[in-house]
Amino acid sequence: MRSSLLITVLPLVGAIPRSSPGERDVKTTVSKRGWSGHDVWNGDWNNHESNNWGDWSNWWPDWSWPGKPSKPNQPNQPNQPEQPTEPEQPGGDDSCEPDDGDEPAPPQDPTPTKPVETPGAPPTQPSPSPTQAPPPGGNGPDYINAANEILDLCELRHLAHDPKMETNAKKTCADANGQLKHEMNPGTMGQVMAQGECTAEGFKRSFAGGWLCEIPSLYKKQPNFCSTSPLAQGWNYQGQTGHAEILSNTKYTLMGCGCEDKIWTCDLAY
Predict the structure, then answer these.
(1) Are 31 and 76 in contact (CB under 8 A)?
(2) What phi, psi does 240 have (nearest 5°)?
(3) CA 103 to CA 106: how far, in whole Å?
(4) I need a surface site. Which of 120, 197, 212, 236 has the fewest CB within 10 A?
């Protein structure tokens, strides 16, 4: 049975903005965010590619990837969005009490004597705190640093640049020939795609607005980011959350991206 093969699949998603052709090359709807194929696919077959919803629609009930989207109401219709909840904020208190157990000083001799200055105890030096390792990705290419700055707004872990993931992502872009066509290459465990200019601003627009803004509540430090930031304007999500769920999943720690023919692709692994 086909349903027994879906336990090991891997998440892949693609997105396309709804803005004007000058800013984003929009074709049709968000399912494949611009093409008739299915834009959220989990698979672990090497070099697999598909842009046909019919290839996967019968497998929908057995998807097994983090943040499983709800079943579509009817064929070729986008999933209904899940309502994410914000995690509780960590709390804590660090305090101490002064010591009161010092014994009183002995009575002084009534005979006048020259006062002698008693040296005080040396000040207590605070114990050094353990050195915290810097977050990964700080010395990577510009796009990985931009991604980690955006993840900071969501209070999420940083992603480290991985050359293998970048090679895989660039190959997917080249083979896609300007379309949102996923391709699994060895080592890739998750993949997201979106249309966008192959520039630094184009990457930030895809990463922050096209992908993470599928779940606006991810932006803990700027709750209104997705409704006010220019990076988030012009996208049509139609209830899909797969891109944001992959990028916010803490199991993924490695990422590499590429862009060709106005298609951004990021491959992830752990």
Answers:
(1) yes
(2) -80, 145
(3) 9
(4) 120
The pLDDT value recorded for residue 19 is 47
Residue with tokens 């697999």: 48
For residue 262, give the H/E element and its range. Answer: none
With 60 as the cut, is the pLDDT of residue 57 above it? no
Q: Is 11 helix (H, G, I), strand (E, B) or coil?
A: strand
Sequence-distant (≥ 6) Cβ neighbours of residue 219 within 8 angstroms: 153, 154, 212, 213, 225, 226
- What is the token pair recorded at 178? 């300007």
Q: What CA dihedral angle connects 239, 243, 247 and 250, to 10 degrees?
A: 60
What would the pLDDT profile of 89-116 be if each residue is shown by its tens digit? Answer: 333 332 233 344 545 455 555 444 444 4
Domain 2-67+136-269 has CATH 2.60.40: no
In a 3-state reduction of DSSP, which class is residue 95?
Answer: coil
12 DSSP assignment: E
Task: Let me know: does 41 contact 56? Beta carbons within 8 Å.
Answer: yes
- What does the domain layout of the chain look like in residue ranges? 2-67+136-269
Are 37 and 52 in contact by the 8 Å Cβ rule? The answer is: yes
Tens digits of residue pLDDT in 207-241 = 999 999 999 999 999 999 999 999 999 999 989 99
Who contacts 22 (Cβ-Cβ below 8 Å, separation ≥6)? none
Q: How many CB atoms lie within 10 A of CB 248?
A: 21
